[in-house]
Predict the structure.
Amino acid sequence: MTAAARTEVGDTLPDVPLVAADGSALRLADWRGKPFVLFFYPKDDTPGCTTENKDFSALADQFARAGVALLGVSKDPPAKHAKFAAKHGLSAPLASDAESDGLAEALGIWVEKSLYGRQYMGMERTTFLVDANGKVAQVWRKVKVKDHAAQVLAAAQAMTDKPAP
């Protein structure tokens, strides 16, 4: 498999199907007309991923006031997402990108990683701020979880000119 080109600012997101935590079909094209944050994380119920999801969920009301939707994505199956969300009281919606030629591959964020000398394919923690036309307005790569959701909120508020009250 050849690596996909990395999606950059100004690119239009591809309309690759995802599956919501409730098992329903989800397409990014359905989100056009409204800005949204698409945050990719490696795995449900791991420390960094749990913190990131909790942070986005804690700010979900502020994102909504700014007119910006949220969507968290990993390769985990929908049932695992539902259990993860219920266990941690997450309010940011989650979607599964389990297909081998899915959205992460199309965006160039399903990458070769290394841990203790072992090579494997995995999700590069990445966040995209997408405008109402489906174009990438900002990208955060190799995200460090601490304060990340707040940084994305500030960028979203600046993009929509709707700062928090």
Remarks:
- The first strand starts at residue 18 and ends at 20.
- Helices lie at 47-58, 60-65, 78-88, 103-107, 148-160.
- The chain has one domain: 18-159.
